[in-house]
Fold this protein.
Amino acid sequence: MALSKALDGFRPSRQKGSATNSSGVSEYSIASGYAANIFNGDVVTINVGKVEVVTTVGLGNDIPLGVFAGCNYTQNGAPVFSKYWPASTSASDIVAFVNDDQNTTFIAQADAAVTVGDVYSTTFNVTLGTGSTYTGQSGHGISAATRGDDGMLTVLGAFKEPGNALGDTNPRVEIIWKQHVNAYPTVGISAG
């Protein structure tokens, strides 16, 4: 039984080569007035020292820092704790929580079929879906149409849950980053 398409972002799963997720996150900042929503489960990057949601995908575009896991800030003298960053919020002491370890694996849903032949042999980019300001949950997922050699992530296998399997229309899969800010070369590589 195939799953219905309901992209809901990236959820931490485990450390590659290890047991369950340790839920380790790092603290970063978001620019006051940053004009885009950032939802729980969105893939984020860092730009001039500030967290931003990924807006362009593929080789040479936004490189993942990790996955957004909420934020807190002070607004009008009161502390605010939120699952998502509301666009254009003017605030002070902004703290963004990001699952940023390049060895953390994540569970995400694909927007079309991913097969057994894709496991460890091809890469994909992120589908940049819209999140929910009601739940704070992401709308990001895996873009099956971007299957190739230079994508952001690699599929490790199917997430083990009833009704989910590789080859289904919208499977939930475990992924690991192929591109990551902590492992991305900053100089060109010669083909020589």
About this structure: The first strand starts at residue 11 and ends at 15. Residues 128 and 140 are 5 Å apart (CA to CA). The two ends are 49 Å apart (CA to CA).
